[in-house]
Design goal:
This protein is mainly alpha-helical and about 575 residues long. Helix content is about 75%, strand content about 0%. The radius of gyration is 28 Å and the shape is globular.
Length: about 575
């Protein structure tokens, strides 16, 4: 984890009371979500009034999807911002992010002076990983004089490994018009530094310092960028300057400790860390975060000393065992590492701990012990049987112990012969080995036993659509899956693909666009790109292929697509 991002994680502990960014997935109010919406009571004809009343009743019954659709239609009819707002409030209670985005966009169009839709649209874009859109909405807030939290957004972008050059261009365009917006200047420098343009970032912040030397956030940003650039003396100096301006801001203690640890001055860093622990009553999550700082610098013993007191608590955080197990593993203390990993109870970190233990054993050439370890864990925690079995299959397959993996799966099926997930896993392993007929036979048996298993219906339907010309049965199976899980990107992809195979290319396009919006992986990208090129949308198809190649190091479906449509290959 990059040092500045780890710093951000620890700052979240130090500043836990701060308000979070507005987002599309925020928790809605417990009561009627429309209770606080603006009233709309005049200007309707009979049909319009009926539509609004039906939407209101749908909302009262909890059918928020129908309410949102109805209000949105009424908003379109009457060009009413209050109706669009009601549509958006209802849509927030649904799982349909496309509907939420549509209602919020219409609200924003009908009430361009209202900043609430921009905040919501930014949150939706963040949830989707659409960073250019998220930034554009934040910049609109900044233009309206709102606190756009651009630097915070820049940290999220870096953490999410967003494509930075176009985002930097957006920010530079904004700062050219609004050079005095310190938040935008710092966000630009943050992205420039993360993109390797450290000199540009530092020069930008130095210029900003001449105007806003009293701004603590500026000195924090300078410290973080200097730290990432390896200039530990500068990182420490700027952290101290920020601390002088804001002595109660714990982030400067943290920044100074980071610089000292990175510079190998562990003794000096311990002074800052002791102050942080004293201020926050040795909060467990803070101890764990600070221990990770030490580990990043290879200071194992100070990290261990920070964590060991947490073992005496009745509520030892699971992360304590995970980090101590990792420390023991790096020191070659395999048995101690297993002891720590095994102590993580069911809940957060449980599966991570068992996966770490299994990978550790297989990496050390102890695959038989790994298999036995998982069998014992499955007996101890039968409710985790499927997940533990999956962990074992992946780890054992990765070290070419396929027979051991098969034995583990067979053992789990002996204990739970009717488990749908295990039966599905067995069938998919046959498919991966090229035994397509066996896979389809086992999927048919699974569907006969569990006719509403959407995953099995989709897997069998997609396999029929891609390996046979039995498109009628394939479509019937996939449509059954779609009726059960209408928002599933995997099922939308299958449905679009079977329509494409049947020659219904335009119908396929809508499903594949929705699938890619929800699951932008290389397989869905290949399907969508092929449909686009057949419909003569060459430019969009080429852009999609370029993006898919950049997002994934392994892209067999895109490679196969390019053998058939070489004109889609990115130009050198």
């Amino acid at each position: 984890m990059p040092k500045s991002l780890l710093s951000a994680a620890i700052c979240a502990v130090l500043l836990a009371g701060c308000e979070s960014l507005p987002g599309g997935s925020g928790s809605p109010p417990v009561d009627d979500p429309l209770a606080t919406a603006p009233p709309v009571s005049s200007g309707f004809d009979a049909e319009g009034l009926s539509q609004v009343l039906l939407s209101e009743m749908a909302g009262q019954r909890g059918d928020f999807h129908r309410a949102a659709v109805g209000y949105l239609a009424a908003a379109e009819r009457y060009r009413s911002a209050p109706l669009a707002e009601r549509a958006t409030l209802a849509a927030r209670y649904t799982d349909d992010t496309a509907l939420l985005n549509a209602t919020a966009e219409r609200w924003q169009q009908l009430a361009p002076e209202d900043t609430a839709p921009e905040k919501l649209l930014s949150g939706i874009a963040i949830d989707r990983g659409n960073w250019p859109a998220a930034l554009q909405h934040r910049l609109e807030l900044a233009r309206a004089g709102e606190d756009a939290q651009l630097l915070d957004l820049a940290d999220l972008m870096v953490e999410s490994q967003a494509e930075l050059p176009p985002l930097i261009a957006q920010l530079r365009d904004f700062t050219a018009t609004f050079p005095d917006n310190a938040d935008a200047q710092m966000a630009t420098a943050r992205l420039e530094a993360a993109d390797g343009r450290v000199d540009e970032a530092q020069q930008r912040l130095k210029r900003l310092t001449r105007q806003h030397a009293e701004l603590p956030e500026l000195w924090l940003a300078r410290s973080q960028i200097a730290l990432e650039a390896g200039d530990y003396a500068q990182a420490a100096a700027t952290a101290r300057r920020g601390q002088e301006l804001s002595p109660d801001d714990d982030r400067f203690l943290l920044a100074l400790a980071q610089a000292q640890i990175a510079n190998g001055d562990i003794a000096a860093a311990e002074g800052q860390i002791d102050q942080l622990l004293a201020r926050h009553n040795a909060t467990p999550s803070l101890r764990i975060g600070l221990a990770q700082l030490y580990l990043d610098a290879g200071a194992i013993e100070p990290a261990r000393r920070l964590l060991l007191p947490l073992l005496d608590r009745d509520d030892t955080p699971p992360a304590t065992y995970l980090v101590l197990g990792s420390i023991a593993e790096t020191q070659g203390e395999i048995e101690n590492a297993l002891l720590y990993y095994r102590q993580v109870p069911v809940g957060p970190g449980f599966l991570d701990s068992r996966a770490l233990a299994t990978r550790m054993l297989t990496a050390k050439g102890r695959a038989d012990e790994a298999q036995q370890f998982l069998r014992i864990e499955i007996l101890r925690h039968p409710g985790q049987r499927v997940a533990l079995t999956q962990i074992g299959l992946q780890a054992l397959d990765n070290v070419d112990r396929t027979a051991a993996a098969d034995a583990l799966l067979a053992s789990s099926l002996e204990q739970a012969p009717d488990d749908a997930d295990l039966l599905y896993t067995r069938a998919m392993r046959e498919f991966e080995r090229g035994n397509v007929e066996t896979m389809m036979s086992q999927m048919r048996q699974l569907i006969a036993r569990y006719p509403d298993n959407a995953a099995a219906l989709n897997a069998l339907g997609y396999t029929l659509a891609t390996t046979t010309e039995n498109y009628d049965e394939a479509q019937e199976l996939i449509e059954r899956a779609h009726a059960l899980e209408p928002q599933s990107p995997a099922i939308l992809d299958s449905l679009g693909w079977v329509y494409f195979k049947r020659g219904e290319t335009r119908k396929a396009l809508g499903y594949l666009r929705r699938a890619y919006a929800g699951q932008p992986d290389q397989e869905v990208a290949a399907h969508l790109a092929e449909v686009l090129v057949v419909l003569d949308h060459q430019q969009e198809a080429r852009a999609l292929v370029k993006s898919a190649l950049a997002d994934s190091e392994v892209h067999p479906d895109i490679d196969d697509l390019l053998t058939r449509y070489p004109q889609l290959a990115p130009q050198p």
